[in-house]
Amino acid sequence: MSGGVATRTAPATRAGGVRSLWAGNPQAVVQRGLIAARSSSWVVVLSGFFEPVFYLLSMGIGLGVIIGDVQTAQGVQVSYAAFIAPALLAVSAMNGAIYDSTWNVFFKLNYGKLYEGMLATSLGPLDVALGEILYALLRGLVYASGFLVIMQIAGLNLAWTAILALPAVLVIAFGFAAVGMAVTSFMKTFQHMDWINFVLLPMFLFSATLYPISVYPEAIQHIIMAFPLWHAVELIRGLTIGVLTADMLWHVLYFAVMIAVGLVFTTRRLRALFLD
């Protein structure tokens, strides 16, 4: 104050260029998510873990006694339980990542108004997007790690390469979380969120999870091969049965593209919603 006249400091403006998108602090968003998770219902969290376990017990072990051995896409004969277990592992990673990157993000975006507060700080939209995706990735990793231990106890990991399924699960969960958050940023009502289940259920049923893709006509097989879950299932299945092929690189590349596209669209969407 000078001469009795109050002076008002102009609000700090966000720097342009890369600094307008990225402050290098996505861990702050992850930390906030972990703190908030302390008060959440652990029943909801555990339900996502037990769902594939129940499928494995009822179909892999129960129905598997009747079905017997199944031939994989690589031409290897395995028990039905060993056939669907890696598929359920991929589904577990997908569900864990999708839940946090869709429903949780939808609430924070449209009702909690948390992203407006985050972007009012030094955080940029890429920090928020990457932080939320990394938090969703942690949930997918927890689900997948627990299920992988159950597979090991049940003797369904048929090769030492099964340990590589864990980093593969991280890539898969990252891809689903990135795209899930990008899609959710365009949704405005709870009715729109029903489309998530509308897409996930057919992927679960038809992505060679419960039976080989060879049972379908060739034209249908090409459609199924476009599903991200099919790529996840084939990648994990190859690792758990110990058949490593060059096709695995295409599966990894598929998810690398998903990650890149999801991050770009989410960052642009958050910037358009709150900064432009």
What does this structure look like?
This protein has 276 residues and is mainly alpha-helical. It has one domain (22-274). It contains ten helices and two strands. The chain has a two-stranded antiparallel sheet. A hairpin with a 5-residue loop joins strand 1 and strand 2 (77-79). Helix 2 packs antiparallel against helix 3, helix 5 (125-153) packs antiparallel against helix 10 (247-274) and helix 6 (165-184) runs antiparallel to helix 9 (228-241). The protein is elongated and about 60 Å long.
Gyration radius over CA: 22 Å
Mean pLDDT: 83
Strand-pairing-aware structural class: mainly alpha
Oligomer type: single chain
Total helical elements:
10
Number of strands: 2
Features:
276 residues; mainly alpha; two-stranded antiparallel sheet; 10 helices; 2% strand; disordered N terminus
